[in-house]
Each structure stands twice: as C-alpha cells, then as structure tokens.
C-alpha cells in the first residue's frame, strides 16, 4: 500500500469582524466603480448637450456688421471671410477669416470678432493710393506705398503722380516689381501743396529720384533720404519763387536749393527800313 495522505486540517473560522471588514471594502469598491461610471455617462451627456446647443439656432450667426470699408463692398468682404448668417458661431475661424479678407486688394488690415451669442463684427482698414503705374497696354493702376496694386484705372488720377520707368503692373492684389520702394516713399511723402504740381516720379542714375512738374520743370531730390527736409525746400521754393521758365530745381542739398531756368530768347531786332 502506498503512503497515506496527511489528514486535512479543518478550515479555520474567520473572525466575524474581519469578514464584515472585507464586505465593507468590496461594497466601497463597487460604489466607487458605480460613481465613476455615472460620472463618465454624465460627462458624455453634457458634451452631447453642449455640442447640440452650439449647433442650435440659438448659437448661430444672426447679425453681421462691417465697418471701415469704402472701396470694397460689405458683400465682397463677407464672401472672402466665408461667414454668413446661419453659420454656427463655434465654427468661425477668426484668424483664417482675417487672412482671406486681407488678400482683397484694397484691404490693409482686418479684425474679426465674435460677440456671443450670435453676432460677428468685421472691421477694415483700407489702403491709400499714393501713385499710379502703367498696367497692361492702354491701362493704369493705382498703387499704395507698399507697391500693392489696388485697382485698374483708365488714366493716372490727376492728384496722384505716375511712376516712370517701372515694369508693367499686374492684376489688383499683386505688387509692383523692380526697385520702386524709393519712388513710393517719395510719392507718399509729397506735401498736399506740392502733389498737384507733380506729374510723375522717375529714378535717375544711381538711384536718385526726380520729380517732373507741370507745366514744366524737374526737381532733383537725390537719394530718397531726408525726405521731410528736401520736400520742405521744394514746397518753399514752389510757393515763393517765380518759376516761369523753370528748368531744374535741385534740392539735393536742401539748405541751398539751386534753380536753373531756361534761356530767354533774345528779342527780335527792329526793322531799320524807314516807314513811308
């Protein structure tokens, strides 16, 4: 016969206090799991309720206001922004809307602000034309101080000088090519009393700037530097000096402007033939 198994010890009785403690621990764990489940369900319900509220007519765009636009219509601005009545407020990307609006030719800056629960304000800062440039054959364009092409025009505006010797401009919204920065700075700095006298601006040798005057005459500014002093000299001379037969007004040294006049043709000699 094989060896006999040792007798099994009878199970020891568990102290009732320990048993009660274990039961309480299990109950607390069950309640904790139940609370966690209820919290998760509540969060999902709140999320769905909030998402549904943002898609409800209570939180869509009801009012649109555009301010600061004169050259560009409100319809063009809103079309570029892609914001329309009925659009969910939560779906509006203000930064993207600003970038699209600022791509419009006349727009220099834009802000888009949501006003909850259902309004959007769009504020525009428009560019200011300072000169005209040749466009496609037979056309002209207005440009601002940065060289941005603003619009096509049939002829240079009478109050804006033309830019001579620059590459033809392209479509509105693009920028002029070539070294035009100096010319544009001068065009933007022209005093109001001088601007109507200037028909065009041109780059001379060495990057110097010249102004063509009406009805005749040229102003030599030199490099586009110290413009305030140089243009003050131009304004003073044009306002105080008789400019009949003006050929050149040189203000490259603004403290000592130099005027060159056209030669005066000599008077015709009187006839010596005796009168009868």
Please report the number of helical segments: 5
The secondary-structure class comes to: alpha/beta
Q: SSE order in H/E notation?
A: HEHHEEEEEEHEEEHEE
- Give the low-pLDDT segments: 269-276
What is the first-to-last residue Cα distance?
Answer: 183 Å
What's the story with the biggest beta sheet? 6 strands, mixed
Mean pLDDT: 85
Task: Report helical residue fraction.
Answer: 25-40%
Report the strand count. Answer: 12
Please state the overall shape, judged from the principal axes of the Cα atoms: elongated
Strand content: 15-25%
Strand order of the biggest β-sheet = 7-8-9-10-11-12
**Computed CA radius of gyration, to the nearest angstrom:** 40 Å
Protein described:
With about 280 residues, this protein is an alpha/beta fold. It contains 5 helices and 12 strands. The strands form 3 sheets. Strands 7-8-9-10-11-12 form a 6-stranded mixed β-sheet, with helices on one face. Strands 1-3-2 form a 3-stranded mixed β-sheet, covered by helices on one side. The longest helix is centred in the first third of the chain and has 39 residues, at about 15-55. The chain starts with 15 loop residues before the first helix and ends in a 15-residue tail after the last strand.
